[in-house]
# Entry
Amino acid sequence: MAVEYYTPGVYVEEIPSGAKPMTAAPTHIVGFLGESRRGTLNRPIMVTSWTQYFDTFIGYKLEDKITPRGTVEKDIDGNVIKEEVPFDKVSDLDWGVYAFFANGGAKCYVVSVNLLSDNSSKLKPLQDELAKQKSMLEKTKDKDGVNKKIADIEKQIQATTNEKSSITKELIGNDGGPSKRTGLKCFKDVSEVAILVAPGIVTPAVQQEMLAYAEAANIFTILDAPKTLEGLKEHNLSDDLNGLAGLSAKCASKQSSVYFPWINTYDSATDANKLVAPSGFVAGIYARVDNERGVFKAPANETVRLATSLAYTLSDTEQESLNMNGVNVIRDFSDKGIVVWGARTTVAMIDPEWRYINVRRLFNMIEKSIEMGSQWAVFEPNDAKLWNALKRNTVSFLSRLYKAGALAGATQDEAFFVKCDAGTNSQDNIDAGIVTVEIGIAPVKPAEFIVFKISQKSPQDSE
# Structure
């Protein structure tokens, strides 16, 4: 409707451009699930640094927060001056978040479902008794009897050190609605989480719930294989590489990946290697690649920071069947170091369309971006003007992705198409309040196998 002017003069009007720019949805924000030493339970806590995580979920006031154990503060003579010192119980969540930030992660949300208890009160009497029995060993004639006691005490110490409550129900959680959710369901309150990780959690029931959640929420989840091949028995699989391939089949989803093996990293508190689940490292690598290159680049052939060695060393031949079945192997090469050497989803064998991680995550990002960037259109008049605006905005967004290298094709027409007109919106749909936009996208796929064909030629042969 035209504006009416009554007084002579100069008038300046703001005219809507019709453009509603779409911004790319975040792809590198991780949701971590597990148990911690302290912190609020069943609430997604945003964390942007390892120091913040240490203060929030570990809590000891330490001079040096290098690893989850930290370094105890001491006086000038080397005596410990803090009464509260870290106990040996360090969770898989602690190490997972530590590896995430070390490998390029910048932001995550942490949900702790259980607070670990300090076992030092149980350990000290056992350790004192062990020392006593060992001192008696040199004096007594009944060496067999004392050795038997020593072996029994060592078993008790080992059992106490490895004591772990079953938290399957706590990890899966319940959905009681806003502010009443627990466990995995807490991530429903955080819309920007794009990757789901539960470091070191290999319980079949929990992994299946993670897969179901990721599918429903249209986000990606990174799963850990068991620490040892023997751990595959918990999944009713054989304890060998065939069983490992079977794990991927049991976890088949276009929204998931599985990594093997576990990774050793140096623990300065014990001056020894600590075996850590790969998912935290890999989540950090996803974030690093997303920030440096883009979500369309496969998160593979990337160095695993902090890795000193691997629980298992696999050969090319051993990796063949695992790669085919969607198990991503972490390898130790003499010329590269320790790198992620796989980029497949767990449906690689059965659904080639979603074989590659970067393709699935690119579509997740595009779908989320279009959803967020088109909210303005809800309740607008359903006519050609709206259709053109939706098409224009979507084309503009996909054009930026094409120029960034996310889409394949020599031209934009080869890379994608967007249709929104009378052909996609029948009168029946208009009457039902539905607007349909059809989009086709050609994603770039990783060059997984580089083949050079070489033959001999004589000087006179042409090319």
Observations:
- DSSP finds 13 helices and 14 strands in the chain.
